[in-house]
Amino acid sequence: MNDWINRWRQKFERFMIGRYGVDPLARFLNICMIVLLIANFLFRSHLLYWLALLILCCSYFRMFSKNIPARFQENERYLRLRFKAGECLKRWRFQGEQALKYHIYRCPGCGQKIRIPRGRGKVSIRCPKCHNEFIRRS
Ligand SMILES: [Zn+2]
Known about the structure:
This protein is 64% helix and 14% strand. By secondary structure, it is of the alpha+beta class. Strand 3 (122-126) and strand 4 (133-137) form a beta hairpin.
């Protein structure tokens, strides 16, 4: 039995020589496919099913592809996008936290943005830029 598995593994390894294999984009595609299949299970939509199948085909096509530079570039593009998305998410979260803790006011004199902690009632604010003073509810 073990022999049989080893033989198949060797065959597969020989088959994969010169082929691209699995990369982070492949793993991402697989996760997408699983999510779509679960969604399909919940919503019974043909569209989701076909989309999952399409992603599966893409994933296998990439894995067995012999055009390694092209696949490598796709993966690079994916990694760059993922990085940008992560940065966006971090920024949104930061802005959300800031919005909960602080109120942003604009100085009526010069338009300078001023950050004031929330929940302190009426406060007198002095603009750090033009020294104009104004009263706001925080
Ligand atoms: Zn000002």
